[in-house]
Structure formats: structure tokens, C-alpha cells
Design brief:
The chain is an alpha+beta fold. Helices cover 14% and strands 36% of the residues. The N and C termini lie far apart (79 Å).
Length: 263
């Protein structure tokens, strides 16, 4: 009986040591906050296809939101903000469904992220995302320098697309937005009425932006559909990024493209 008891104790000890919080140095979820380039998958260095940027992933440790780009499509998902230190489950990640000429990197990224159960800090401010074992990372992350910052929004922009629909040509009043970054204000026209307001960003996420204080005049026009789409897009915007053609895209909380701006 004593041998059985000792054996059970040893089994329990091994189980405890293999848990996410088994080491005193297990990383807190807060270290994940921000954006990270995916530079290695299963021991192989990531080489983006011609014309494609590095895949990346971003974490908001306050809300549990995950976002990013797998190499072609935008990533979206959540993680448990109450998980034990060192634990991270990314098995429920989703993505948009656009096709690109080369989907190799994207397939590898999505397959690897689905295996993630743990994470740990590496030298050089890198992070390893691991499966059930911490010995062999399935993904290695490196801090990402944003491709575009809020300062790039300064000036006058024409709205070319809202809520997935192109702005019709020949409108009497072309929808536009004009940003004053120093004052953190914007001015523009939604297609009929003048709009004014401020914007908010998150220091932990350089790509974040929202418009909680936008107001418009109340004039009625024969066709208000474009204006309604523009205002809906602004109300739902949570982040922004540079598009391949140099335009700026605004995205909602589900990483769907809701507004396109062109200089």
C-alpha cells in the first residue's frame, strides 16, 4: 500500500510540473500585449512570398482579443485572460477567406496556431508559442514595428469604399475625412452632412483607432444611403492599416474591412 501511495504522489508531482504554472518563471499574459511578427514555424524561418509582408499576430491582454494576418487573410479570435501564467490556447482562431497567389505561409501559420497551448519568453525579447511541451516551439514571435502609425493619417483623404461598397462616382459631395493629428480631431463630409469629432487610440496597440465622438449636421439629401454606410463604418471602426495600393483601411472588431481612404 505504501508503494502505491508513493507512486500516486510521484504521478501527481509530474502532472504539476507539466502544467502551465509549473515554474516560478512562467510568463504572465500581460507580456503578450502588442503586435508580433511570426518569424519561425516548427523550426523553419518564415520567408514571405513576393509582395507579401510577414505574418503577424496581436494580443490585447485586457479584452482577450487576438488579431493579425496569416500572410494573406486577417486573423481574429480570443484567448482566456484568466488562464494560468504560461497558458495560451489559440485553437479557436478564425480568418477571412480571400485567396492569394501563394497560400503556403498562411497554411503553415494557421496549422501552427491551432496547436498552441503554452508560451514562454526567449532571449532577445522574443516569445515562443508551444504545444503541450515547452521544449519545442511551434511558433516564434518577434516584436513588430507597425507598418503605419496614426501620424500617417494626417491630412485630407477621399473615402472610396464604405461597408464593402464602392462610393459612386459623380456625387455632388464627395465623402472625405481630414485628420488633425496634433489636435486629435477629424473633419469631413459623409456624402451629405458635415462631420466633426475626435478619435481614440490605444498605446498598447499602434494600429487601434475608434471614433466615439463623431457628430454630423442634420441636412436631408435625396440619397442618404452612402452617408449611412460611412457613418456606420466610422461607428464600427476599431483598427486601421495600410493596404497594398497605399490606401488606408479601417477595420471593425471582427477585422472586417469597413472603410477605405485614398489620398
Amino acid at each position: 500500500m505504501k508503494k502505491i501511495f508513493v507512486s500516486l504522489c510521484m504521478t501527481a508531482a509530474v502532472t504539476a510540473l507539466s502544467s502551465c504554472a509549473s515554474t516560478k518563471n512562467a510568463a504572465s499574459l500581460s507580456v503578450l500585449s502588442g503586435e508580433w511578427n511570426i518569424i519561425e514555424i516548427n523550426g523553419t524561418v518564415v520567408v514571405p512570398a513576393p509582395g507579401q509582408a510577414f505574418p503577424y499576430i496581436g494580443f490585447d491582454s485586457n479584452t482577450g482579443k487576438v488579431y493579425g494576418n496569416a500572410g494573406c487573410n486577417r486573423l481574429m479570435g480570443t484567448f482566456d485572460t484568466q488562464a494560468k501564467p504560461g497558458c495560451l490556447d489559440l485553437s479557436q482562431m478564425g480568418s477571412t477567406r480571400m485567396m492569394c497567389p501563394d497560400m503556403t505561409v498562411e497554411r503553415n501559420v494557421l496549422s501552427a496556431l491551432a496547436q498552441v497551448k503554452k508560451f514562454k519568453m526567449l532571449d532577445g525579447n522574443q516569445i515562443a508559442l508551444c504545444g503541450k511541451s515547452l521544449k519545442r516551439p511551434v511558433v516564434v514571435l518577434q516584436p513588430r514595428v507597425p507598418e503605419v502609425t496614426v501620424a500617417a493619417l494626417e491630412g485630407h483623404w477621399i473615402i472610396t469604399e464604405a461597408m464593402g461598397q464602392a462610393i459612386p462616382e459623380g456625387m455632388e459631395k464627395t465623402p472625405f475625412l481630414e485628420f488633425d493629428i496634433q489636435a486629435r480631431r477629424l473633419h469631413g463630409n459623409a456624402g451629405c452632412n458635415i462631420i466633426n469629432g475626435g478619435y481614440e487610440t490605444d498605446e498598447a496597440n499602434a494600429a487601434s483607432i475608434s471614433f466615439p465622438q463623431v457628430a454630423s449636421t442634420m441636412m436631408a439629401c435625396p440619397d442618404m444611403q452612402v452617408e449611412q454606410r460611412v457613418l456606420q463604418a466610422l461607428n464600427s471602426t476599431k483598427s486601421f492599416g495600410r493596404l497594398e495600393n497605399g490606401s488606408i483601411g479601417f477595420y471593425d472588431a471582427e477585422s472586417a474591412l469597413v472603410l477605405v481612404l485614398k489620398k
